[in-house]
Write a structure and sequence with these properties.
The complex is a heterodimer. Chain A is 78% helix and 0% strand. By secondary structure, chain B is mostly helical. In chain B, α3 runs antiparallel to α4. Chain B is extended, with a radius of gyration of 19 Å. Classes of the chains: A mainly alpha, B mainly alpha. Chains A and B meet through α3, α4, α5, α6 and α9 of A and α1, α2, β2, α3 and α4 of B.
Chain lengths: 213, 102
């Protein structure tokens, strides 16, 4: 398959999930404008859902920012890996940084030679950006039009989206063990500490379990 | 400034900072295997906690409601290897039906 076709099919399928994000954001009382700004400026699916999920659970803005940023650290590592290949300078580095996400890196790393890798990164990054933002707007407007989010199941769409993002990462025993402990810790803390804290506390579990080989 | 605006602007600014720093520092930095291992586990921990809290919590109370049924549908669909939009839609429809009829 050509790199253009790879990039396009990833862009349109992933972009379509943007509608789930737009709807989830509006269901959590974000405005349509705020939902769209998150997709334009934050532009990293899991982190965007985290902002919405933490606020929807009653967490503070600081908590939402911390959770979303921790989820976004992997984008920094992707950049580390791809920057030498892309030979970034000046404004090009700014644009490349913004579109450094799971999908642009994924398509780039699946290519055979360096030229194709560069193309894969740029095509997929731009493609996902365009479709993700268009679908966010559509989802946000749709959710705004339908009213009560529970009646349409939007309150379950948020955790389902998280589960969909989590599922492919449960690739070995270690991640399953971690997930089990994270459920226990988050739910044990929920009635005892302010909302939002149970989520971010689970970072400690990742450090403990990741410390040993 | 409202809760929502602080969350939107703060998280967006930091997300870009992380991406930009990654694209700017030398590659040898952060190549410690322990840091890489922890970095791949952090999303697992946070996403799992987000699933649990957004399914079973209402502010600081644990509850069992229509969302739990929606999530059971999501798990079944994921085990059946359904694509992401089908999973989200299946959870939403199941939850909406439970909300209406239970």
């Amino acid at each position: 398959m050509s790199v253009k076709r790879d990039s396009f099919s990833v862009s349109i399928t992933v972009g379509a999930y943007g509608s789930a994000f737009g709807a989830a954001a509006v269901a959590a009382d974000f405005s349509v404008l705020q939902a769209c700004l998150l997709s334009l400026l934050l532009f990293s699916g899991a982190s965007q859902f985290a902002v919405v999920g933490v606020i929807a659970a009653g967490g503070t803005p600081l908590n939402a920012i911390a959770t979303s940023t921790l989820l976004g650290t992997r984008n920094g590592l992707y950049g580390l890996r791809l920057a030498p290949l892309l030979k970034l300078r000046g404004w090009k580095r700014v644009v490349a940084a913004q579109i450094t996400i799971d999908e642009s890196i994924g398509v780039a790393l699946a290519q055979k030679d360096e030229d194709q890798m560069r193309k894969g990164f740029w095509y997929t990054g731009f493609g996902v950006f365009v479709f993700w933002n268009l679908f966010t707007l559509a989802g946000a407007l749709g959710a705004q039009a339908i009213g009560n989010p529970s009646a349409w199941g939007l309150d379950a769409a948020v955790p389902a989206a998280f589960l969909g993002l989590l599922w492919p990462r449960l690739s070995d025993r270690k991640s399953w063990v971690l997930a089990g402990f994270a459920i226990l810790l988050a739910l044990t803390l929920t009635p005892n500490v302010p909302a939002g804290i149970p989520i971010i506390s689970c970072t400690a579990l990742a450090i403990i379990i990741g410390w040993r080989k | 400034m409202s809760t929502f605006w602080i969350a939107v602007i703060g998280s967006s600014a930091l997300a870009f900072a992380v991406k930009y720093i990654g694209a700017s520092v030398p590659e040898t930095f952060l190549s410690n295997p322990r840091i890489l291992r922890i970095n791949t586990l952090i999303p697992v921990a946070l996403l799992t906690a987000l699933v649990a809290v957004n399914t079973f919590a209402d502010k600081t109370q644990l509850v069992l409601d229509n969302r739990a049924l929606g999530m059971s549908a999501a798990v079944v669909l994921l085990i059946a290897k359904a694509p992401f939009p089908v999973v989200v839609l299946g959870a939403a429809i199941t939850s909406a039906l439970a909300y209406r009829y239970i």
